[in-house]
Structures are given as structure tokens and as C-alpha cells.
Amino acid sequence: MGSSTKIGPVLVGTCPEPPTTFERSHPRTHIVILVAREISITDEIRIDASCDVVWAVIVDPAMQPIVDPRLNLVDQWGEPGVPGSGYLLSFVEPQREATFRPGGRTHSTSTASYRVQIRCEVVESIRPSTLILETWVGRRLKAREHGEFIVDGQATVLRWTIVQWPAFGLRRITEKLCRRNLPIQLSAVRREASQRD
Predict the structure, then answer these.
(1) pLDDT surpassing 60 at residue 108
(2) pLDDT at 112
(3) Neighbours of 115 (CB within 10 A)
(4) String of b and e for 45-68 (b: at least 16 CB within 10 Å)?
(5) Total domain count for the chain?
(6) Rounded Cα gap, residues 157 and 44, in angstroms
(7) Spatial separation of the C-alpha atoms in residues 67 and 188, rounded to whole Å
(8) Sign (positive or negative) of CA dihedral 83, 175, 71, 21
(9) 192 within 8 A of 57, measured Cβ to Cβ
(10) Pair 186, 179: CB distance under 8 Å
(11) What is the pTM of this model?
(12) What is the domain range of residue 154?
């Protein structure tokens, strides 16, 4: 049974109830990941391009590495934007280094780079006004994204909502990253759509 998520005056479709745990079996280990309550982030941007152009940019799998340079397109299937279509991305988090000086001493620390594959699928679409995507990492539903394409004269208002179910203990950092990254991604869509129109 699904539940509806309402953000202000915007109704964000029907979201499936996320699992409260995610299990992964291995011959020597058995891992259980607890899932925290959902996070919903909504942002919008006005783009000087028609809804059709903005739609074409959003559903184009080749746009993903442009929107987020950490992503690489691995595979795609189906006609873009049609329910059942989708694409497979490789996400690479680069190694980072930090320096800090506790008690007057200088210490350096670094985080190792890691790679994960992300599967994105279109679950609902009404061209060119509504698009709903699901993002999976392995067997875990990571996020559901809802896009609304609103005509504003010769321009388009793109309203985008991301609903995520972070692992237990990662809610705060997940929300912070989502709030930071969503405006950046929408700006990249505006830049690309403005060039195409």
C-alpha cells in the first residue's frame, strides 16, 4: 500500500512504502541496513526554453554526466522518457584529502575513492508535463524523483522533487547533500536546455 507525500501545495504522486530494512546475504556475512524515515526536497527553476526542449534534456541519459560529472553512463534501454525505459550509471566519489591542526600539530587524512552502480527507471510519464523516476542501488530503492514541467509563456518552470530513504544514521548528511546538489543539477539542465532552444 503506497502513501502520498505532500510538500506545500504540491502533491508528489504516490510513493511506495520503503523497506524498513535491507538485507544482503554473503557466504560469510549477513548484513542488515536499517532505513530511516523519508526525506523530501523540492526546488524549481525557470528555464527560457519550451517544455518539449526541457523534457528532451531531462530524459536524455547522455545528459547525466553533464549534470553531475561524477556519473558515467554505462548502459540504457527503451525509448527515453517512456515508462519501462531507463539507464545504468556508474557513480565515482573521488578521493578527498583534509588537513587539520589539533593542539598545534598538523595531521592529514584522506578518504578512499569508491564506485557504485545506480539504476534509474521511468515509472510514469505524461509528456511533456510529468515525469517520475525511481533510482535503485542494488536491490535497495534509493530515491523517487518527480518532475513537473509548467508552461510560463515562452519559458518553462521545472519543479523537481526528490524523495529519499537514507540508511539509518545518515539522514542529516543525506538531506544536506540533496539540498546542495539539487539546485546545481537544475542549473545544469537550464544551461543545456537554453543552448538547445
Answers:
(1) no
(2) 53
(3) 10
(4) bebebbbebbbbbbbbbebbeebe
(5) 1
(6) 7
(7) 5
(8) negative
(9) yes
(10) no
(11) 0.72
(12) 3-196
Cα 46 to Cα 28, 40, 43, 90: the distances in Å are 52, 21, 11, 29
Element (H, E) at 183: helix 171-196
CA 109, CA 164: separation in Å to the nearest integer? 30
Buried b (16+ CB within 10 A) or exposed e, 148-172: bbeeeeebbebbbbbbbbbeeeebe
Place of cell 526541457: 54
Cα→Cα distances 194→10, 101, 169, 183, Å: 26, 46, 40, 16
* Residue located via cell numbers 543545456: 192
Which residue in this structure is represented by grid cell 543552448? Answer: 195
The secondary structure of residue 24, as a DSSP letter, is E
Cell digits of residue 65? 554526466
Cα–chain center distance at 169: 19
What pLDDT is stored for residue 183 in this prediction? Answer: 95
Domain at 144, CATH number: 3.30.530.20
- What pLDDT shows up at residue 115? 77
